[in-house]
Amino acid sequence: MSHPLRFACTQCGKCCHDLRLPLSVDEAIIWLRDGGEVKLFCEAIPWPDEPAPDNLQARHKKGRSFPAQSGELPVRIVATLVASFDGPCPHLQADLRCGAYERRPRTCRIYPAEANPFIALNPAGKLCPPEAWGADKPVFLIGETLADAGLARTIAQSREWDVKDLGAKAQVCAALSISTAALANEGYAIHSPPGEKLLDALTAARVASRESAAGYAEPVEWGLVSNRSATRAVLGEIGARVVPEFSDISGISGISGAMEYLPFYAAD
Ligand code: SF4
Ligand code: SF4
Q1: Average pLDDT over residues 23-50
Q2: What's the pLDDT at 87?
Q3: For the chain, what are the domain ranges?
Q4: Residue whose CA is closest, atom 2 of ligand 2?
């Protein structure tokens, strides 16, 4: 039997600072109505063929992405709504309690557990202090099973909303002319639409996607961005529409607001 992992939150408040908090559509609407800032982190997964049904990683990626096209290359777009703030969360109170406790996002409810079924919980990668994982703390995880059934349900709901929100996210991108993504695993194209425009688009898309059987907007052609010339060359060879020069995207703005590129690797 696996050694149990023990944990209890010390309420140190570290996980409420300097965050990029993934949100569902409903949570993003609440965050924006509270006056917070929400960005869209976009990445594109090349999807030339449907993977085998027993490829569980691919099924997971498909469940979190909507179909699109980049030139001749079929892709799937992962568009993540992200509450973004440096320093303390706008809801964090002086006593380090959450001022929006009842409506806090699922990501906050889940931490430090992992929502991604393919990522194992590693205390060393979490912000919680060592004493939070002490031997005197209650059992948190045994093998892959969380001791708290309520937390397991919240994680399951988070994954369900990842899937249910795809149609609305596709519609929001179309409505705001957001059609540039980073190549997945190389970085993010980060779009910062004006808050009011994003709120209107999310509210309309939420209604429309839940009334529509298909759920997706008309496919939009996406441009792919990379800061690595080798990547741009390969994407060009396989027929993708590549944003030609990295410097071209630095000043893009308009209805979709400003866009930045957050690379995971140094430019070549
Ligand atoms: S919403 Fe609450 S729990 Fe989540 S980061 Fe902000 S203060 Fe922390
Ligand atoms: S970092 Fe960990 S211990 Fe500190 S408040 Fe967040 S969940 Fe609790």
Answers
A1: 96
A2: 95
A3: 5-263
A4: 128
